[in-house]
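Methods: example folding runs. The two proteins below were folded one after another, and each record is reproduced exactly as written to the output file, sequence line first and structure-token line second.
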Amino acid sequence: MVLTDINVIKRILSKHGFSFSKALGQNFLIDPEVCPKMADLGGAKDGTGVIEIGPGIGVLTVELAKRAEKVVTVELDTRLIPVLAETLSDYRNVEVINADVLKTDLFKLIEDNFNGKSVNVCANLPYYITSPILMYLLESRLPVESITVMVQKEAADRLCAKVGSRDSGAITVAVNYYAEPEVLFDVGRECFMPSPNVDSCVIKLNVRKEPPVKVENEEFFFSMVKAAFSQRRKTAANGISSGLGISKDKVSEALSASGLSPTVRAEALTMEELALLSDNLLKVR
């Protein structure tokens, strides 16, 4: 069963009365080279476990199952469960869970299924929910080695940007705090059925054992970062002041104590400068 063959896909979906849901961002891969490459670069190999999110009809799942010792795949759409039962019937090392990954206890999932094995996440994420899923995975501090995902090309540029560069944003800072991101390869819109309006990119987040900076209060740090980037055309001071309700005088004081210009923009700040500013803001707020 070649799950990248358009005729095979249509036959299976027709058999199960399945139709694509725009609301769930469903686009199935039809390029036979993408998923094997994703599985290899995503760390699926003998003795390892893989968590997949949003398997669709199982095209990536099959490649993961060929390489890893066990694959647990989480699918939200109940309509796809019987489809996956058919497409994955030859693979005894795959478990399909019908659930919302954002409401799933992934620590328990890992404990119940992988028995101390090295675990990686590998997924073709729906575009509309890319950031919430990635932040849930990272903020949970799961015991995983890496997170390899296909995302919208524009999102990949932002997620993998260097902190302190023009393309960086609050999500860039958050991702770099928890992981070391890298771009793996691009995937054109023609590789999907139905074809989306944008190109895609596969990225890998190598999960850090420790953050690259130490901050006094992690929750405040991320609140400050979010506020600083909330008004991209304005200075970081304006964003922080309005976002956190701290007077501009105190924000200016913290900027000065951090050796930063009062007119600096958030995207110009490095991770180290953001951490120092956060700590200094805590002292004066």
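Second run, written to the same file directly after the first:
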Amino acid sequence: MRLLFQPSRTRRALIALPLLACCLGTPWVQAADWPSKTVKLVVGFPPGSSPDLTARLLAEPLGRALGQTVIVENKVGAGGNVAADQVAKASDGHTLGLMINGNMTIARILNPQLNYDPLKDLAAISLIGSAPLVLTVPADAPGQTAAQWLDQAKQAGERWSYGSPGVGTVAHLGMELLKSRAGLSPVHVPYPGNPQVITAMLGGQIQAALLPPALASAQARSGKLKLLATTATGRSILAPEVPSLAEAGVKNYQLEIWNAVAAPASMPEAHIRKVAAAVTEIVRAPEMRARLFQQGWQVIGAAPEGLRHRIQMDTQALGDIIRRQNIQQ
């Protein structure tokens, strides 16, 4: 039987396209109607902390880009892992997280009983910025250079200590790496956060710490602390006057902290790409780049692929330190 009406090839394609999109979940169809309600940006640290300040800088312009309000929710605990777990398990399709590198890399290595697996349960969206840490000591510490101080510290054996904002933090792992590379033997003293680390150093309870550059530089300007070296491979634009540990003779040493936006692994790829494009454009804008620089971040604004690569590199490098030093939370 011959049909009285046969649609043209073009018309048949147009009729079939929406049906195919519905069946296959075509990305542009998914992304067009998302987000459909308020987006939550979860932060694992208290108000006023560096991750919190970054999240609040990002929230308003991200909301404009997505066409929905973005609110910041602080979920404090376990060095950011409580918030990361909440993001990993979120099923509303409108939850994102502002993470630090530990939450997205080594959390499960440090604690095999952790409720989420960062490599399986979190989707990488965008690497916002990074920064080296700064080897910081009291202003009256012996030695004028990092090499001189390291020599004195080596001779002191176990008769000195260093502080960090907690077991398994990048500052802790960085000092453990320095111990092994420079032949040092200090005692580790963990604190709730960097403000307590600084207080302890000023009070003489500890003799060194690895601090974020913005925090360390502020204390150095007041004359209370001395900046010896950064954990970058060369001079960092965040502290150009401070030499690197490599310049002090510590070979093959590199360490950075970073922050990023993540989502539950269940979030559709189209939504991830939409957020990633928005975040990258926002953080690379000159005004936002300057504001993040003031907070101590060198802006990167990497796409999901770049963040995934960084996660793989850090998981291996920091995981090696954890296993070598038998560090556990």
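Comment on the second run: The domain at 134-230 is CATH 3.40.190.10 (D-Maltodextrin-Binding Protein; domain 2).
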